[in-house]
Prior knowledge:
Layout: H1 2-21, H2 34-37, E1 53-55, E2 59-66, E3 71-79, E4 87-92, E5 97-101, E6 111-118, E7 125-135, E8 142-152
Parallel strand pairs: 2-8
Antiparallel strand pairs: 1-3, 3-6, 4-7, 5-6, 7-8
Amino acid sequence: MKRIFFFLIITIAFFSVNAQNLKPKKPAKAKTTKKAIMAAPVSPAIIYDKAEILFDTTSHDFKEIFEGQDAIYIFKFYNIGREPLTITDAHPGCSCTVSDYTKEPVMPGKSGSVTVKYATHGRMGTFAKSVSVTSTSYKTPVVTLIISGNVIAAPQETR
């Protein structure tokens, strides 16, 4: 009985000493090379059989912009389908907003853009303008892009 008791005490002591010596392992550092750092950005994967449009973002907030400056933002999109994608229209919500877009078909895996321009001259205060983009996209044939912000008075020149 004394031997079992002695063996039990030795085992407990052994495990308690080893438990105190265990240190958490540090995560391995990722190895980077110059080639990995200088790699070109990759376009999104082609995941649909038919043409499909995917925008980087569908809204942009200018925060504050001076009156007289045009608020211009370029929305970038990708064709993530296996067929060519064509934008058929980019219709602004009002006459103070103008849009332009990539007219030629966008091949699978390639990108295009929609430029939205809001004329701020004589339009002080907050704004939120939309452009409806119609395309040959199978799942999302119409996408609404929004620009917003606050037009503030331009600084006055002193003589």
